Amino acid sequence: MRISFFKYSLSIVLLSLFLASNIFAQEQDLSNYRMRFRFKSIKQPDGSRILEASFVATNKKDRKDRVPVYEADINFLNVLGEEKVPLGASKTSKEGIARITLPEDQYYLKDEEGRITLMALFKGTEELDGEEEEISIKDIHLDLGLIEKDSIKTVQVKAHTLDSLGVQIPVEETDIIISVEGMLSKMIIDEGTIEEGGYEFEMPIGLPGDVNGNITVYAIIEDHDDYGDVVQKNTESWGILNEQHKEDENTLWSEAAPIWMYVVLTILLVGIWANFVYTGIHLFKIKKEGEELELKTENE
Amino acid sequence: MGLLSGATTVAGATLLANLASEEELQASGEKIRVLTPDGKMVEVDAESINNYPEAHITPAESRKGIPDRKFVMVIDLAKCKNARNCVESCQKAHNLDYNEEFMKVQLIQDHEEAEPYWFPKPCYHCDEPPCVTVCPTGATFKRDDGIVLIDNDRCIGCKFCITSCPYSARQFNWSHKPKFDDTSQPYSPETSIPGTEGTVMKCDFCPDMLRQGKLPYCASSCPMGVIYFGDKNEDMVTNGEETVRFSELINDRGGYRHLEHLGTKPNVYYLPAVNRQFPLERGFDVEEDIIERYKDVPFVQDLKSQGKI
Amino acid sequence: MNVDSRKRELVKEFSPMLLKSTKWSKIWIGILVGFVLWGLAAFVIQVVKGHEVTGMRDNVVWGIYIINFIFFVCLSYSGAFISGILHFFKTPWKNSISRIVEIITVVSLIIGPIFILLCIGRLDRLHYLFLYPRIQSPITWDIIAIITDLIGCFIYLYLTFIPDFAILRDNSEDVPEWRRKLYTFLAIGYRDTPTQRNRLHKITRIMSAMIIALAIVAYTVLAWIFSLTLQPGWNSTIFAPYFIVAGLYSGVGVIIIAMYLIRKYFKLDHYIRKVHFIGAGVILLVISLLFGYFTFSEYFSRWFSHKTHDADLLNTLFNKYFWEFIFANYIGVLVPIVILFFKRFRTIKSITFAAVIAVLGLWLNRYLIVVPTLETPYLPIQDTRPEFIHYSATWIEWALSFAGIAAFVLFFILIMRLVPIIPMSGIIDYEREGKGGTYSVTQYQLK
């Protein structure tokens, strides 16, 4: 017991020493950094909403020198006037990002315009000042239709918001990006603006899609003042199948060799070994003859 | 008050201790700096290598390849300025020494009249790879997704593949190095670490990253977006910033493959160095030792005689 | 003529070679063993420290090990080839040299593959060649060819030894017991009866034809290791016949040198006579002309068409390797031709000198095929480390090379202690067929 207490206190002392030196070494560094706290909302295709706060210190002199804040507690709140409803909390990752996902049927406090005010809050510690960031967005309903109009493959985007009475209001003047999903990234195929609640364009031809010929199209509103980030997607088997890479069989570079190689090698080896065996048999006969001779001479 | 600050210290200490032990565990990993809520800057392992030990691909599994993919790389020579980020990030990820480069940046001058250009050269992962053909044990193999890998558990070190590769893409581990003893992660041909003495190694197209839906290190680290990578089956390649159709890129920009006449059918394409974005000289902003490599190129000799480098 | 007494006479004549060891022979063996031990030490260092101790690096991954490998293996193949021809066509003057050729064949086929093993990074995984074979790889073909050839050569060599073992068994009154037992075992009851003799002659003849075929196949496969790659200096359609001719060139050369040394040290002047040297010299002349022709064709077509990468290679050869090129491909070919072409230059010593030049030139020719090609890859070497740009063998590699040569000579000497270097049965056969009249007369006159 005593020993463990001793150990414990010693380790604390050592660690605090280590910490103290650390603080000393880096305190002056911190003054060169500006804290950047950002907050955004991303509405997902399934109707859920991601709230994402990024917390990064950037060097005032060297912009490339970015240091993410790690393990900071971030609280997410829904605000209406004086009322604050906590939505959840998360710690920042090594990239300085804290994230929570809210389900589609999440209840939000809205003002009379239908705006939802969301807040990300860092309470602050002794060394770091508190941060808060507020965004105010309208819940947008984005529909992405992949339809064939006169046998022309068309991407059709429809967007509306709901007012407090539940009346659909078409969305106006909103930039939208249309892209298709790839293995490593999304490829932008069109950029346009939603007018009168809709936008449509002709799908480029010749895209292969995935192995089943399915193409997944995304419609994305990015960083909009009123709607935040909104993502919608839809999949249709519009792909023109690329000729799938055939498995190489019986080539020089596959596991199994071309058949003729086996044949030739076998013929060669069998021929040669037949000869060796033939020689062996005759040697054996010579030996036998020798033994017979010996027997004969012994008998005589 | 004193008690309170003591508590903070302890809390901070545990956090730091956690970080430290994590560092010990993954000594080979890449480090990044982060700021703790206590205002301390500490180094932690970047979330890169083998964060998913359950996703470890054994040598036997690595022979199959990622289903229904056919990987291609497109290198835009017009944008390369020999920043060497591709080389360095690759070295970091594959735990390579200073002179061990899976990705090399060469200075190529096609003929006397032509201005030389920077030429990043990975393994070309040929469709008809001469290295695979000559391997007597099947230690190097061609996968269905187009990637040519080496299983250094199988390699006997005959070096025949090195002599038969016309692109000098392969390297040999000439002696034992302490880094080979690092068993913090199990060997996989998909990561090429740890290396083994007396075996061959080369660029592997980072299948471990591809399985996570990420770009190979060289492509993601290039500040100029020189290196596009993607799946030929979906006809898309990306350099991390923009994604374009592979067929359009090749057709519109005159994409070609190096030494096409050899018939190896590489999966690495080049876009010619036309309308360059940087003057060639920008590429000489590297270490003296690196510049020295290019001393046989006539253009470099001219620059030297003019005292420009 | 009584065959049995003639046999006894021959055994008496050759037994000093088999049994007595002089002071000089002991010293020689001591020196050779010393070289082998030096090589073993080098080998241990290489195993412990890795291939870093050699001069080989990423561009030149094959150095003088592989050159020695080709050299010895070619020597063996050409030995088999020549020996097969001698037997198959019943060449009149074959008897005195056929055993030399056979021993060269087998010994070099044991030494050669050791050099390829030195090239291999992971000797502990050698069995993977059989566990995971890929028959597309020329290395696999080469392994099959070498093993098959080695077995064939052993069988063949043994067949030619049997009659002599029998003679030694029957006339071993005053030799140690173990020797007699060994001879009895190895002679497998061969009594030189007409049926046995005919049987043995038949299978020896078939094996001699087999050996020729095997040698050609194995040679070709060896050449293909190089010519099937895309390297500018290697990818050549004439490489297989070129290697065959080059192998014969070095083979005949080494045979002449061996004849000279054996004749000198064992005082076999009446068996290995000037006529043998002249015969071998004329063959060497023919082969050197052929070899020169192939060498010229090979480089001339590269020079004339001068594709970029061929031109780069020739540039390396004519600048970095100028003197080596001159020695290997001019002196190494022309000097033997000049010496052997003119009748009055054809003395035993000059023919041996020509052979030495030929062998050295050929070894260098091999060096020039392997190293400069690897130093001139398609993409220029852009490196700052001198050892990665230019290959130069380290003492480890040289020690092992000389150990290989020493082991070759040592094995040769050991086999010569087992059976006489001149096949006694051959002499008997020759005399029995009645053609030997002049032969034996000459010998008796000499005595």
UniProtKB/TrEMBL annotation, chain C:
Cross-referenced InterPro entries: NrfD-like (IPR005614)
Topology relative to the membrane: Multi-pass membrane protein
Entry's transmembrane regions: 27-48, 60-88, 100-123, 143-162, 206-226, 238-262, 274-296, 321-342, 351-369, 389-415
Localization terms from the record: Cell membrane
Annotated keywords: Cell membrane, Membrane, Transmembrane, Transmembrane helix
GO cellular component: plasma membrane
Residues spanning the signal sequence: none
Pfam assignment, any one: NrfD
Similarity section: Belongs to the NrfD family.
UniProt-recorded name of the protein: Polysulfide reductase
Originating organism: Ulvibacterium marinum
